[in-house]
Structure formats: structure tokens, C-alpha cells
Write a structure and sequence with these properties.
This protein is an alpha/beta fold. It contains 15 helices and 13 strands. Helices cover about 40% and strands about 15% of the residues.
């Protein structure tokens, strides 16, 4: 089954997003410790060659590349573990132009043009800006250009950051309607346990998981945090990225990008790395954006009856079913919807600000209509603005 799955994905492939992590394009050969490493030209040259080969077969390629901070650090000789924010941003500014210069140089040798796209969370949370980014990407791809995307680190601080490029690459794969996201990592894929741990006597060695069809709590637990100071999220953010794309019917493949042959193997349909794919299930682009791109500003807890109405019967959330309101949010803000066990079952855009919702929670429509002079809505969150999260939790 897994082999057919991979061939099937490749047979429909028109557009692919390839995420290249800092750990993968840092100069391992230099023998320096991770925080002193700069960009590996050799590796970028290798990727340019392989990506050009893929592009020649008629597949459009977008790259999400990290490495700006790493390259800038090296150029400024900043090898302390902790950098302050301006130092990090200065490193990103220096590194980003160097990163692009290097990509441009090697892609030009392959007869291909590249374009730089820098995005922040603000560009993604406004629907119009989000769609603008999509139109720009479309125009670039239609001219045969390879867009190279990174977070706009120079002007964003942690609070308003997308945070990591695994997340950004998943958002881009969905935004651009790609049929595959490939994450080039510095490990082979997801293992049953930490592959680097020392085994106890008679303990079986951890095995590589070839196919994941659903992101269960068990899978999330296996995705431990990274020990490499150059990789921001390790396997955890990769699995979260896969969750995002799977809910949109886009498969994610995590492979070892340090292996120079890996992209060739992937495109031959070889069973390398871990493939996350649940099949071609797709929510509407807007609903996917609500659930997976917007950052929730608060949470509402609902009772068992409201949970059934939402999850099983496809209904809207009424104020009567709300039992608790957390956080400070405004009309139209994204919020998490938790059941009475605290499990997040849905996300949506709310019709009341947090103060009003806290006042009217548990009340019937008739009572609320009397209480509020203006701004009455039947629904706390309308069905059109509400997304049940996958996998749909059982009742
Ligand atoms: N945007 C960061 C950089 O270019 C990397 C973020 C990440 O690796 O996830 O250095």
C-alpha cells in the first residue's frame, strides 16, 4: 500500500513545496559546532541541480527556506546560544540577502530565475493580504520562476511571528494548492521512539514510520522537541505542519535532506522518510484558513448538548451552550471551542466580544435580545464561520 500511495501522489503532482531547514543547509562539512556554521554553498548547489531536474519534468516548485539567521550569525561572528531580538533581526537581515544571492547564483546556472517572498503573520491573518500573496505566487509560477519564501524575521518579534518555517511551508502548500509538501529535515523521518537514544538491554531499536494516516495523540507524543540549536521546532512542528496540510488533502513527506540523493529517490517513488497522508479530503479554503492560519485570541467552553449540535449535527454555536469564556477578543476574532473536558473540538470566528459573551453565556435568545440594545446575533459562532477539527472527536 505505501508504495502505491507514493506513486499515486506523484502521478497527480503539478505543484510541490519544498521546505529546506537551517540544519540541512548549514555547513556540516566545516566540522564546526552548529552555532558557528555558515551556509553550505555545496548543498545549495546540489538542491538547485535537483530542483531544476524536477522543474524540467513540468512540476512547479516553491521553496520555503530557512537559514537567514544562521547565515547572518556566522557573518557577524555571533555564536552565543541566546541572541537578543535586535541581534537576531540584524542577523536575519544580513543572512537573508546572502541566502538569496547564493540561491540565485546556483539556480541561474540551471537556467532558472528565483524570487524572494518574505511574509509575516500579519500578511496571513488578513484574508485580502493572504489572497494577494496567492496571486503573486501564481504569477511567478506561471513565468517559470522558483519563489523562495521565508518569514520576514527582520521586522517581526516573537509575539506576532509565524514562528517556524515548518508551519509557514504548510500554510504555503495549502495557499498555493500544491499536491505535496516535502520537508527536508536532518533526520530520516518520524520514528517509533527517539532514534538517538541509548538502548536498554533487550530493547528493540526505534523504527522509522513510513506512513501516517492520522495525527493521533500518540503520534504527537512521538514527535519530540529538537536538540539541534539550528532547528526551531524539531519533529513536533513538522507533525503539526503535516496535520495542517492533511486536513486540506495535501500530503506531507518528511525526509532526510542531508542525504544528497533523497529528492531523486522521492521523485522515483521510493519509500523514504515518513509520509503523512489521509487521502484527498478538503475543507473550503476559507474554513481551512480559519482553523489553521489564524491565531486564536481566546477560548469558549461549551456544554455537552452544544458539542453534539456542533460535532454531530452540523449546527451553529448558540450563546445558550457556552459555559465559560477565556481571553480578550473582539467581534470577528478567531477562538478555540473546548468541550467540557477541555478538549478542543472546533475553531471559529465569534459574533460577540469577550465581555458581552461572558455576560450572555448560558442564556436563551429571547433573554439576550432583551438585554442587548444593539448588536444582537442569534449565534455566538455561525456555522459558516466554524470548523470542526480533525479527527472529529467521538461523543
Ligand atoms: N526564518 C528563520 C531563518 O531564516 C528560520 C525559522 C525556522 O527555521 O523555522 O533563519
Amino acid at each position: 500500500m505505501p508504495k502505491e500511495t507514493r506513486k499515486e501522489i506523484l502521478s497527480h503532482l503539478k505543484r510541490v513545496v519544498i521546505k529546506i531547514g537551517s540544519g540541512v543547509i548549514s555547513d556540516h562539512e566545516s566540522g564546526k559546532p552548529p552555532l558557528e556554521r555558515g551556509l553550505s554553498r555545496k548543498r545549495i548547489q546540489g538542491y538547485a541541480r535537483r530542483i531544476a531536474k524536477i522543474h524540467k519534468t513540468g512540476v512547479e516548485v516553491m521553496i520555503v527556506s530557512s537559514g537567514a539567521v544562521m547565515a547572518g550569525r556566522e557573518r557577524l561572528n555571533l555564536n552565543r546560544v541566546k541572541l537578543d531580538i535586535p541581534e537576531k533581526q540584524a542577523s536575519a537581515a544580513i543572512g537573508q540577502s546572502f541566502l538569496m544571492r547564493t540561491y540565485e547564483h546556483y539556480f541561474e546556472k540551471q537556467g532558472l530565475k528565483v524570487a524572494q517572498i518574505l511574509l509575516g503573520h500579519h500578511d496571513l491573518e488578513h484574508r485580502q493580504r493572504f489572497l494577494n500573496a496567492k496571486h503573486t505566487l501564481e504569477a511567478l509560477l506561471s513565468h517559470g520562476v522558483i519563489p523562495i519564501i521565508n518569514e520576514n524575521d527582520t521586522v517581526t518579534v516573537d509575539e506576532i511571528k509565524i514562528g517556524d518555517n515548518d508551519t509557514l511551508s504548510a500554510t504555503m502548500a495549502c495557499l498555493a494548492g500544491a499536491q505535496l509538501l516535502i520537508i527536508l529535515s536532518d533526520v530520516e523521518g518520524l520514528y517509533t521512539d527517539d532514534p538517538r537514544k541509548t538502548l536498554k538491554k533487550n530493547e528493540a531499536a526505534p523504527e522509522l514510520i513510513s506512513l501516517v494516516r492520522s495525527i493521533t495523540p500518540d503520534i504527537e507524543k512521538r514527535a519530540g522537541k529538537s536538540k539541534n540549536p539550528l532547528s526551531r521546532g524539531g519533529m513536533y512542528t513538522k507533525v503539526q505542519a503535516a496535520k495542517k496540510t492533511m486536513s486540506y488533502g495535501v500530503p506531507t513527506l518528511i525526509v532526510n535532506g542531508l542525504d544528497s540523493k533523497v529528492l531523486d529517490q522521492v521523485f522515483k517513488g521510493h519509500e523514504v522518510g515518513t509520509l503523512f497522508w489521509a487521502g484527498p479530503k478538503k475543507v473550503s479554503p476559507r474554513k481551512h484558513w480559519i482553523a489553521h492560519t489564524l491565531k486564536p485570541l481566546g477560548a469558549v467552553t461549551i456544554d455537552a448538548g452544544a458539542r453534539r449540535a456542533l460535532v454531530n449535527n452540523g449546527k451553529s454555536l448558540l450563546p445558550a451552550g457556552v459555559t465559560q469564556v477565556e481571553g480578550k477578543f473582539e467581534f470577528g476574532s478567531p477562538v478555540r471551542i473546548l468541550d467540557d473536558q477541555g478538549v478542543e473540538v472546533a475553531r471559529g470566528l465569534v459574533n460577540y466580544n469577550s465581555a458581552d459573551l461572558a455576560r450572555i453565556k448560558g442564556l436563551t435568545s429571547a433573554k439576550i435580545r432583551d438585554m442587548l440594545e444593539t448588536g444582537f446575533y442569534e449565534e455566538a459562532i455561525h456555522r459558516d464561520d466554524l470548523v470542526i477539527l480533525e479527527p472529529a472527536p467521538a461523543t
